[in-house]
Amino acid sequence: MALDTKYNAVVTALGMYVPETILDNKYFEKIVETNDEWIKSRTGISERRIIENGATSDLATGAAKDLIEKYNINPEEIDVVIVSTVTPDMFFPATACLVQDNIGAKNAWGFDVSAACSGFLFGFHVGASLIESGRYKKVLVIGADKMSAITDYTDRNTCILFGDAAAAVLLEPTEDKNFGLQDSLLHCDGSGREALYMKGGGSLNPPTHETVDKKLHYIFQDGKAVFKVAVKGMADISYEIMQKNNLTSEDIAYLVPHQANLRIIDATAQRMGIPKEKVMINIDKYGNTTAATIPLCLVEYYRDGKVKKGDKLILSAFGAGFTWGATYLVWGMD
Ligand code: COA
Known about the structure:
Elements: E1 8-17, E2 21-24, H1 25-31, H2 36-43, E3 47-50, H3 56-70, E4 80-84, H4 95-103, E5 109-113, H5 119-132, E6 139-146, H6 156-159, E7 164-174, E8 180-188, E9 196-198, H7 209-213, E10 219-221, H8 223-244, E11 254-257, H9 262-272, H10 283-286, H11 293-303, E12 312-319, E13 323-330
Parallel strand pairs: 4-5, 4-6, 11-12
Antiparallel strand pairs: 1-7, 2-3, 6-7, 8-13, 9-10, 12-13
Helix pairs in contact: 3-4, 8-9
The structure holds coenzyme A (COA).
The site of coenzyme A (COA) has 22 residues, from helix 2, helix 6, helix 8 and strand 12.
């Protein structure tokens, strides 16, 4: 369903950054009661990366610099920097400001988007809207999370799931409506807030010795509850955007799902009638990197020569909030 604007927003450059340190499943066998077989069969994860020295802005800056260098982008031409993250360096200033400075985007303004695992889709849609308005020509959208900063490495229910990474896309306008963002369906439902959240550190539970003792500064997740709604939420929204845009599974080159659990991804693909070879998957290597998972898949598959101009992609995600959504994108890069 093409948008009723002069411009479409199309991806014209990509970049990624993953830290060097790898934590494999064997590592977790040493620190919590778990095993490689359990982790692989229940989640699809074999290893994940963590940044030992650095913050989310360093991950995001790494991805932005990769994009700038590989595509010879002049940072002074970037109009807006959007960073989707739930692990900002600090409450304020926004991580986008830190990245703007680090990359020398002297003429840009920017802000952070907080939508957890749906963060990239929300940021992408907002960035695309700025392009579609005709007001901006280069919008950098980055998904970046240092999940290791808020992970309790004594809790086997959560610590095996998450990793650190960042990936970035540059959005620019095109008058060819056949390419770029075609449609987005986005939702939030705060009644799900207690299934997946970080209780402490904000204005509700400001940091005290007590909040630290009670481990309120870590991810809390009711895994079973989240699993149930995530399976249904991601499958339903992905199917809905196909139907709305008259797409069959044959039309779609790739499903690009948020990488939280391989079983959630499989259920989504099944509902859409999409075979495994048309599903982007890298959860085995990186685990759940929250806002970074979807752009990280895009970068890796594109660089492997698997994504071609004109390919129809469905991006879909589900995360804390609850937040969820799907995006229909036609790839515009050669
Ligand atoms: N190793 C071994 N056993 C573990 C374990 C681990 N790392 N983590 C949990 N278990 C145990 C549980 O304690 C439970 O034991 P119990 O029955 O004695 O209480 C048992 O395994 C089964 O737990 P369950 O929650 O049913 O497992 P599951 O199949 O649902 O898998 C998750 C657990 C976390 C992998 C799964 O629920 C999940 O992926 N949830 C959604 C996560 C998600 O998507 N989060 C991000 C939002 S998008």
